[in-house]
Specification:
mainly alpha, two-stranded antiparallel ribbon, 3 domains, 6 strands, single chain, 352 residues, 17 helices
Length: 352
């Protein structure tokens, strides 16, 4: 029984004061997110910008999709929506009609992020707003709590001790499975990251530094204190002192035969001004796949429409759909002038 009680205290019980502080932090993050998106309101939340709503509805990034901002066509309408979201977030911050503010905040953040998706943090923030719907975030440090205490005093009822120093006071704690759900979300985030981020740079440790210094992630404070090592990230076109380290890491990746630096590119006649700082050469039986998606149903348009992908020998993955590709990556076609009309099928090669 002691074990069960410890588990209950650890994963099912929360202090109402801690929940109130969590509400303040959550509302602060939501307001900061809203301000960040307001800076690009015209460009990304109206039809006058880069992402008209009819384009996103015609080819959504994911299904199902829901956003109240799909109804906003002009910058003025989008600005009105932002103002309403800001009002809801402020109500959550001060704890006024907290339960209603929690529901509306979840709807607002889902609408904002479904219209323009930044990164995985958007999903985490929306899920946090969802799970906290089941928590009493307004019982302490809120306008609702102050109004409840005033009504209780006017009715002559004893007010709940909101300032008790006893952490086990019945009025200071709540037991609910929602606490375990919130903790479980954090647990699975780190667990799944540990499972999927297992490449060379993650194991070596430098990927965390490079990831946190991407322009899409780094904050204004981070840009104020830049690091010389930032230029060594593999997706950058301007390596400095980090190039030798990146070359060493790429050399450890299975399937890469050569990594050419400036001298190596000159040796192979590849030292063009636009050839980058490093060139990775695959082994004879490997190739660099451009696929960065896992589900073929969400493949980008160019995966099926760029003509160079139809060129025989350019992409073994596409060649296998029409021709026979050997284990070493060679595509076998007929000697006909038009191999597209008379390909050698994989079934035919198996009969030989």
């Amino acid at each position: 029984m002691r074990v069960l009680e410890r588990l209950r205290q650890a994963y099912l019980v929360a202090d109402l004061r801690s929940l109130a502080l969590g509400r303040l932090g959550l509302a602060g993050v939501l307001i900061a997110d809203l301000i960040t998106r307001a800076l690009v309101l015209r460009d990304f939340y109206s039809n006058e910008g880069l992402l008209p709503n009819h384009t996103l509805l015609w080819r959504p990034e994911r299904l199902p999709v829901f956003s109240l901002f799909f109804a906003a066509s002009s910058p003025a309408m989008a600005a009105l929506g932002f103002a309403l979201c800001g009002a809801v977030y402020v109500c959550l911050l001060v704890g006024y009609r907290t339960r209603l503010a929690q529901v509306l905040s979840w709807v607002a953040v889902v609408s904002l992020h479904a219209r323009v998706f930044y990164n995985g943090g958007d999903i985490v923030l929306a899920e946090l707003c969802l799970w906290t719907l089941f928590l009493p975030l307004g019982r302490r440090y809120s306008i609702d709590a102050a109004l409840a205490a005033r009504r209780a005093a006017a009715a002559g009822a004893p007010a709940r001790t909101a300032t008790s120093t006893d952490p086990h006071h019945a009025g200071q704690q709540i037991t609910t499975p929602a606490i375990a759900v919130v903790l479980g979300q954090l647990f699975f985030i780190y667990l799944l990251n540990a499972i999927h981020k297992n490449g060379v740079t993650w194991k070596e440790g430098s990927a965390v530094h490079y990831t946190l210094h991407q322009d899409a992630i780094v904050t204004l404070i981070g840009r104020t204190f830049p690091s010389d090592e930032l230029a060594g990230q593999i997706w950058s076109v301007s390596f400095t002192n980090g190039a030798p380290e990146v070359k060493r890491l790429l050399g450890q990746v299975p399937g890469i035969e050569l990594v050419l630096d400036k001298e190596g590119k000159r040796q192979y006649g590849l030292d063009h001004v636009r050839s980058g700082e490093l060139i990775a050469v695959s082994c004879s039986d490997r190739w660099f796949s451009y696929y960065y998606w896992l589900d073929d149903a969400v493949a980008p348009d160019f995966a099926r429409t760029v003509d160079i992908h139809r060129k025989i020998g350019y992409d073994p993955v596409e060649d296998r759909k029409k021709y026979h590709v050997t284990p070493s990556g060679l595509t076998v076609v007929t000697r006909d002038i038009s191999p597209y009309e008379n390909p050698v099928s994989p079934a035919f090669m198996q009969t030989m």
